[in-house]
Specification:
The chain is α+β, with helices and mostly antiparallel strands. It has four helices and seven strands; from the N terminus they run ααββαββαβββ.
């Protein structure tokens, strides 16, 4: 019976609340994948989990896990209210604070969903299939991104509607662009309510 109920949820339409939860969850797994693939944290601090039909890696570092959980919960609220426009993962050198990579997730929200009562005609399974393709691309970027030769740190930037008050524990920040960069566009996915477009910019190799 439980399996039948789960199957039903996977194939029924998507609501604004459900869309916000799916997209926030994608960001959680996507950020974890970036931090693992780019070696920002030691590989032994990650554990394997099954999600989207893939084996993904998520952090076991308590401080980092707590931080990412807080970000995910905040993103759910802002996605539900359709007031978040972009999330950016910035990777910079610890030695000189130079920005080396910038993973940008642009978010489009159909604000008419706030007035709709019924679910949209797209199943959770179809959405997760699209998300799987994006996660696979994030994993595959190690084949073309330059090696990060120095120890690096990451920062998260979130762009919201201008009139939104900055929550406690968050602070205003500049865009942290990369000088002399290359940019690669990855796949996008849509829930029919939220659409997420992904690009990664990285510093060009200075060697001719």
């Amino acid at each position: 019976m439980a399996a039948q109920q789960q199957l039903g949820r996977e194939h029924q339409g998507i609501t604004l609340r459900g869309s916000a939860e799916l997209v926030a969850e994608f960001f959680s797994y996507g950020i974890n994948s970036i931090l693992y693939q780019r070696g920002i944290y030691p590989p032994e601090t990650f554990t394997r989990v099954q999600k989207y039909g893939l084996t993904l890696l998520v952090t076991t570092d308590p401080e980092l896990a707590n931080y990412l959980n807080n970000v995910t919960e905040q993103m759910k609220e802002w996605l539900y209210k359709c007031i978040v426009q972009r999330l950016v993962v910035v990777i910079s050198s610890i030695d000189n604070s130079e920005v080396l990579e910038r993973w940008q997730f642009d978010i489009e929200c159909d604000k008419t969903a706030k007035d709709d009562n019924g679910p949209r005609e797209k199943s959770q399974k179809a959405i997760q299939d699209e998300i799987r393709s994006v996660i696979r691309q994030i994993t595959a970027t190690v084949t073309f991104l330059p090696l990060l030769e120095s120890a690096c740190a990451f920062d998260l930037l979130i762009y919201t509607d201008k009139d939104l008050a900055v929550p406690a524990k968050w602070e205003e920040s500049g865009p942290q662009f990369i000088a002399n960069s290359e940019e690669v566009r990855l796949r996008s996915f849509t829930t029919t309510i939220h659409k997420v477009n992904t690009t990664v910019a990285y510093k060009k190799d200075s060697v001719p």
